[in-house]
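Next comes a concrete protein, fold included:
___
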Amino acid sequence: MKIKYRETNDKRVVDFNDFIKHKYPQFFKETKPDLILVAGGDGAMLHAIQELIDLQVPFFGKAQGSFNFLMNIFDVDTQVIEGLLNNLYDLYIVETGAIDVNLDGKHVGEAVNEVLIGNSINGYHDFTITTEDLSFNEFKLKGCGICVSTPLGSTGYNFNNRGPILPIGRKLWAISSIVCNQHVNDLLNIQSLHITVNKGYLFLDGIKKADINSQSKLVLSPGKIVRLAFLDKQQFLHQRVGLSHRLRK
């Protein structure tokens, strides 16, 4: 297996960066990888996916962050990496779709977790939402923001906004309002979603991508497939189930 290493600047990853540089320097130059290796937290993984999604190969994370929902937890670096190089692991692959985002006719990028439109808890915006299946048809909304999340991202901002945790692999999005005059907490079949907004900022996976000006038009569409590789299926699933239980208490 050919591996590409996507280096991050997180201070927690300095030692692992040095380890890769000295033992596997070829990982930095690999242009046709079978797997992309990322160390750090979930933020590092999301940045890597946004940067390298076009390669369309699985991403494999080493957990060195806070929550590590998207990462693998392991200690013996050489053993694991040699196992990956020699195809010794039957990796569990989580497959999910990104959200492709266009703003005023220009492609902005793809979100693996969520698309967030707003600016602050004190922000006030006018939204109009229309979906391809007309489950939202020129729906008017006023408030701080809107969050549209994928199944993978439903454990993040969407969950903290009291949105549902979606089953992995389902062709669904969750859409929720953020301090608005009308309560929106809906599930959508993935489809073309049009949002007109008067002002604010556009965030993809927590990364600010654009300023939104008067009557900007956003189009959200099904994006590329993203694959995450795990050594232990139960580790990944256990964290999602644990989050769900918090709501049931």
Q: What stands out?
A: The first helix runs from residue 14 to 23. The chain has two domains: 3-89, 98-223.
